[in-house]
UniProtKB/TrEMBL annotation:
Pfam families: Endonuclease_1. It comes from the Bacteria. Residues 1-36 form the signal peptide. This is Ribonuclease. GO terms for molecular function: hydrolase activity; nuclease activity. The keyword Ligase does not apply. InterPro entries: Endonuclease-I, His-Me_finger_sf. Coiled coil: none annotated. Keywords: Hydrolase, Nuclease, Signal. The keyword Signal applies.
Length: 268
């Protein structure tokens, strides 16, 4: 009788514990927001943005990063040889999407070469190779010619079939998924472009959205996927060094989402 009484009394407790555990399990399915960071630039470069959120933060960052030195498209070749140099081999660059280390001298348009990948596809907003968005190092990366061609102007999303020599990247009819080590990089490059180019400098107002197949519209999707990639793949030492090189030597502006990945969630 005593045992029966204990079982009856414990049922509500057991149910409560089970419900609590179920809640904890569900919560772990969603990655937590990126932790707040501090940088040496918060009291200088980012002074007018720190502490803001939403449209106010986006507007402040736009003003800050719009002050930049612009490169010609031909100058991008040599810049990429420095910004994307293989830290283990100064004669090579690291290729986006495949992760391969390839000789700096193999830049060009033939099979086996690397070329200049516009991560924000230049047809999305129709800015081409124009000085400005078409030459902005913060979204231009060395990429294998064939892998670059496969990506084309596809939007970004999860899933697809393996890309040949793509390092684990996937592709389907309307989207491209970079290898895991590059997903956060891609997200932060896309969102940099959305803040930098707001339609006030003669170019289209670039914005991420929840679609794929955006075509020539000035949009790239999917925003929710890019946000998840930003959380799952935080800025690497390579990405941070690249951001610094662009700031110190070339454009003299920064990608704020490399310095503060939590600002992605604060804006979007």
């Amino acid at each position: 009788m005593l045992a029966t009484t204990r079982i009856r009394r414990c049922k509500p407790v057991a149910l409560a514990i089970a419900a609590a555990l179920a809640g904890l399990t569900a919560a772990t399915l969603t990655a937590p927001p990126a932790a707040a960071t501090t940088t040496a630039y918060d009291t200088t470069y980012y002074r007018d943005a720190v502490g803001k959120t939403g449209t106010s933060l986006k507007s402040s960052l736009h003003t800050i990063i719009s002050s930049q030195t612009k490169l010609s498209y031909s100058a991008v070749w040599n810049a990429l040889k420095a910004t994307d140099q293989d830290p283990n081999n100064s004669n090579n660059v690291i290729l986006l999407y495949s992760g391969e280390s390839r000789s700096k001298s193999l830049n060009g348009g033939d099979t086996g070469d690397w070329n200049r990948e516009h991560v924000w596809a230049k047809s999305h907003g129709d800015f081409g190779e124009a000085t400005g968005p078409g030459t902005d190092l913060h979204h231009l990366r060395p990429s294998d010619v064939r892998v670059n061609s496969i990506r084309g102007n596809l939007d970004f999303d999860n899933g697809g079939s393996a890309v040949t020599n793509g390092g684990g990247s996937l592709v389907d009819s309307d989207s491209f998924q970079p290898r895991a080590a590059d997903r956060g990089d891609v997200a932060r490059m896309i969102l940099y472009m959305a803040v930098r180019y707001e339609g006030d400098d003669g170019f289209a107002d670039l914005e991420p959205n929840e679609r794929v197949g955006n075509g020539s519209n000035p949009h790239i999707g999917k925003l929710s996927v890019l946000k998840a990639w930003n959380e799952a793949d935080p800025p690497s030492a390579f990405e941070e060094k690249r951001n610094q090189a662009i700031y110190d030597t070339y454009q003299h502006n920064r990608n704020p989402f490399i310095d503060h990945p939590e600002w992605v969630e604060a804006i979007w």
